[in-house]
Design brief:
6 strands; 167 residues
């Protein structure tokens, strides 16, 4: 199955996970880059990122040379912001009606909130069933053998066709 990992990463955690997944799944990656960067330090990071997530903003993205329609499976990955997913993922999903694809979701956070972010993303993408998910807590900042095990298990799950899901 031809797989594309579409991700947004502010602090490098999600980018690190995307690279681990790409290596194990022989997948391509697409880094979403907002035309106007989000602050990455201090109060402004939490204020502007949280506001953008809560207001369901769709920031303009830099052009990318990959055509998502050419892939069988899309893995959407990003950080949890204010209890939901980061806005660049919203921009991507709205621009690419990919309901005929197999999907999986990955979220990185400093704690919780991934379940709501997964549900919000599935609702936006109008998916008929719940896709496979992976949640990691600060995987780049706080290396842990448990994270590598979770990544390997997630990849194995994606390699094994699930009943009722697109393959």
């Amino acid at each position: 199955m031809k797989t594309l990992i579409v991700y947004y990463s502010l602090e490098g955690n999600t980018a690190w996970v995307a690279q681990q997944l790409a290596a194990q799944l022989d997948a391509d990656t697409l880094s979403l880059v907002p035309q106007k960067a989000y602050p990455d330090k201090g109060f402004a990071k939490f204020f502007w990122g949280g506001k953008s997530a809560k207001m369901k903003e769709t920031p303009a993205l830099e052009a990318y040379g990959i055509e998502p329609a050419a892939y069988d499976r899309i893995i959407l990955a990003g950080p949890v912001w204010a209890g939901t997913f980061a806005p660049p993922l919203r921009t991507f999903v709205k621009a690419h009606p990919l309901t005929d694809k197999a999907f999986a979701f990955v979220m990185c956070s400093a704690g919780g909130g991934a379940d709501k972010a997964f549900a919000d993303l599935a609702a936006l993408a109008k998916l008929p069933q719940n896709p496979p998910t992976l949640h990691l807590v600060d995987p780049k900042k706080k290396p842990d053998d448990g994270n590598m095990k979770k990544i390997a298990e997630f990849c194995e799950k994606l390699r094994t066709p699930q009943e009722g899901t697109a393959t």
